[in-house]
Design goal:
Number of strands: 0
Structural class: mainly alpha
Helix content: over 70%
Oligomer: single chain
Largest sheet: none
Distance between the termini: 36 Å
Order of helices and strands: HHHHHHHHHHHHHH
Length: 261
């Protein structure tokens, strides 16, 4: 903004009364003369990508990286575009570059773990999460994502350990973690598992769980409620707990309905 304002004050040839001509002229001058041209290319790449134009975004990122080979944000955006467009090998290669340029940044190991996990390389993804945790054991994100990875491969005890650690470190609401703890707890072979699962689900809903996961809870509640009378292990307290989940969902739905959503 500062560069654009001074440029427009300085050059009457570039700045016209037509806004589109003004923006175009200022950008043309800046991109040709500003020592921070790579920044403008990066932000234009963001705009192209937001508009769904991966090709133009990648072209701008390539030029930005040529101008500044240590422009880490450009590598990161390029990796995201590659991964989102099915070019996993290229995406992983970009993240490898990021790690080599800034090996003390745990977020790049998290990015690598996500890429490997989506590529079904679970064991390698686990190693990357462990590296991220070793670099910064106080960041809750790798614990949460490691818990999610273990949950998805049905390693529920490990998932629970990581989710509990994430809860310990997160400062603020953590509805997703409570949700997954509830999903794990209801499968445990314990007499009070449904009661405890209900407690986790209520915490998740109260802390702002998204609607899709709330519906999952409601489906669980409906399923157990309808079969409760035939299942001796489900006592009346369980029915109350699961029914309460439905009431919470109804209250949430009412809340949005009243506000016109």
């Amino acid at each position: 903004r500062r560069h654009t304002r001074s440029l427009c004050d300085w050059s009457s040839d570039v700045c016209s009364s037509d806004l589109e001509s003004l923006i175009s002229g200022c950008y043309t001058y800046i991109s040709a003369n500003d020592p921070f041209k790579a920044n403008y290319l990066f932000w234009r790449a963001n705009a192209y990508w937001a508009d769904g134009n991966a090709k133009k975004a990648l072209n701008d990122l390539e030029e930005a990286i040529v101008l500044d080979p240590n422009y880490l944000d450009a590598y990161e955006l390029r990796s995201a575009i590659y991964l989102a467009t099915g070019q996993s090998g290229a995406g992983i290669s970009e993240i490898t570059t990021l790690k080599s340029k800034d090996p003390a940044n745990e977020f790049y190991y998290i990015l690598m773990a996500r890429a490997l996990s989506s590529n079904n390389s679970t064991d390698q993804a686990v190693l990357e999460y462990e590296k991220a945790i070793k670099i910064n054991p106080y960041n809750p994100l790798p614990y949460y994502e490691m818990g999610l990875l273990q949950y998805n491969i049905k390693q529920y005890d490990l998932a629970k350990t990581y989710f509990n650690k994430a809860i310990e470190l997160i400062r603020g609401p953590s509805p997703k973690v409570w949700f997954y703890l509830g999903m794990i707890t209801k499968q445990e072979i314990k007499f009070d598992r449904y009661q405890k699962a209900g407690d986790y689900f209520r915490k998740a809903i109260k802390e702002g769980l998204d609607e899709a996961d709330v519906k999952t809870i409601v489906q669980e509640a409906d399923k157990f409620y309808s079969s409760a009378l035939d299942a001796l292990q489900l006592d009346s307290s369980v029915i109350v707990t699961l029914n309460y989940a439905i009431q919470l969902y109804d209250s949430k739905a009412e809340y949005y309905f009243e506000r016109g959503r």
